[in-house]
């Protein structure tokens, strides 16, 4: 038997004691950045996810609003944060793609690790229920009869509503008149007051706006009808394959450790399968749809390609 000198044993004991324990992720509060003001559809979506993600991870998930510049301020903060899993954020299309196309931004798609999409809120075009425009076909016919005179409210240059309008113009060969407003609610009010002829909104917003009002959703900009409004046709069914709206997902700064990424992805999948989460989302007109990371990235890359092509022919900031 070989005996180690007492000095060596003591040194080994000190070394073991001095080695810090590696904490298992997460062991403290997580920040979830929302690049828009409180109270909107994206914010509501983020807070609903945060509530259930907190349950899955066992640590507080605190929503922090960082509005401004169409989402650029919050997305820039997320991109520049430490990739340790303690700062994540909700990411919207089209802004995550269109902002770097239209101006020099502090982020690109490569700045983020995309964990999962949690909601797909397709774009819609809406009119008054009493309007002579009663269908997608009527809208196209009116625009062809009066080029540039059919007014459509959007949420400003480069917004989802504005880009959706441009995509429809391109697909149908028509000329609409986009009118910028400060958000979907302002567009709703302008429509109800008769100030404009039609307004864009994501489906969740349109369903909320339609409650108790003279409102008609003409169509959804999706590849298939939404379970939330199965009686509303797609633009594709009318011959105009326009896909647009807001795909909302959760992302983090690029470079997450594999084990942290896997834990977040797994937790988000569990959130999306939680019956209580789905119940709350439905009550709030939030179109929940889980899309795993690889498919989510593929969709974003496809949108990036189509938005670059649109920018070449129809720059939306002019």
Low-pLDDT residue spans: 16-21
Structural shape: globular
Portion of residues within helices? 40-55%
Radius of gyration of CA atoms, rounded to a whole number: 24 Å
Structural category: alpha/beta
CATH architecture of the largest domain: 3-Layer(aba) Sandwich
What is the count of DSSP helices, taking H or I runs of 4+ residues? 11
CATH class label of the largest domain: Alpha Beta
Mean pLDDT: 90
The number of distinct structural domains comes to 2
The first-to-last residue Cα distance is 85 Å
SSE topology string: HEHEHEHEHEHEHEHEEHHEH
In summary, what is this structure?
It contains eleven helices and ten strands. It has 318 residues and is α/β, with parallel strands linked by helices.
SSE blueprint and pairings:
Elements: H1 6-18, E1 30-34, H2 41-57, E2 61-65, H3 72-80, E3 87-92, H4 95-102, E4 112-127, H5 136-145, E5 151-154, H6 160-172, E6 177-180, H7 184-192, E7 198-202, H8 203-210, E8 216-221, E9 245-253, H9 258-273, H10 275-283, E10 288-292, H11 293-313
Parallel strand pairs: 1-2, 1-3, 5-6, 5-7
Antiparallel strand pairs: 3-9, 4-7, 4-8, 4-9, 4-10
Helix pairs in contact: 2-9, 4-11
Can you tag this structure with a few keywords?
signal; 10 strands; single chain; alpha/beta; about 325 residues; Bug_dom1; D-Maltodextrin-Binding Protein, domain 2; 11 helices
What would you note in describing this structure?
With 318 residues, the chain is α/β, with parallel strands linked by helices. It has 2 domains: 30-121 and 245-313, D-Maltodextrin-Binding Protein, domain 2; 122-238, Periplasmic binding protein-like II (D-Maltodextrin-Binding Protein, domain 2, 3-Layer(aba) Sandwich), CATH 3.40.190.10. The protein is built from 11 helices and 10 strands. Strands 1, 2, 3, 4, 5, 6, 7, 8, 9 and 10 form a 10-stranded mixed beta sheet that branches. α2 crosses α9 (258-273) and α4 packs parallel to α11. The model is unreliable at 16-21 (pLDDT under 50). Residues 1-23 form the signal peptide.
């Amino acid at each position: 038997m070989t005996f180690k000198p007492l000095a060596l044993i003591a040194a080994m004991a000190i070394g073991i004691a001095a080695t810090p324990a590696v904490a298992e992720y997460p062991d403290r509060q997580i920040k979830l950045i929302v690049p828009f003001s409180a109270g909107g559809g994206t914010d509501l979506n983020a807070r609903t996810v945060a509530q259930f993600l907190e349950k899955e991870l066992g640590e507080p998930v605190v929503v922090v609003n960082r509005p401004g510049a169409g989402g650029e301020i919050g997305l820039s903060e997320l991109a520049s944060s430490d990739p340790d899993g303690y700062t994540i954020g909700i990411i919207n299309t089209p802004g995550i793609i269109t902002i770097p196309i239209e101006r020099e931004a502090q982020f690109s798609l490569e700045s983020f690790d995309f964990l999962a999409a949690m909601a797909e809120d397709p774009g819609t075009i809406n009119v008054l229920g009493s309007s002579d425009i009663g269908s997608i076909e009527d809208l196209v016919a009116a625009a062809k009869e009066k080029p540039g005179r059919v007014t459509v409210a959007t949420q400003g240059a480069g917004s989802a509503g504005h880009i959706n309008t441009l995509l429809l113009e391109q697909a149908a060969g028509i000329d609409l008149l986009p009118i910028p407003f400060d958000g979907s609610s302002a567009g709703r009010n302008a429509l109800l007051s008769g100030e404009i002829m039609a307004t864009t909104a994501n489906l969740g917003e349109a369903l909320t706006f339609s409650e108790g009002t003279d409102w008609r959703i003409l169509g959804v900009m999706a590849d298939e009808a939404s379970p939330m409004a199965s009686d509303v046709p797609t633009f594709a069914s009318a011959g105009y394959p326009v896909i647009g709206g807001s795909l909302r997902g959760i992302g983090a700064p690029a470079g997450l450790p594999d084990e942290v990424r896997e834990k977040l992805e797994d937790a988000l999948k569990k959130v999306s399968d939680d019956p209580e989460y789905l119940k709350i989302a439905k009550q709030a007109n939030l179109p929940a749809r889980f899309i795993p990371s690889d498919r989510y990235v593929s969709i974003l890359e496809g949108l990036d390609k189509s938005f670059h092509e649109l920018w070449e022919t129809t720059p939306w900031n002019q």
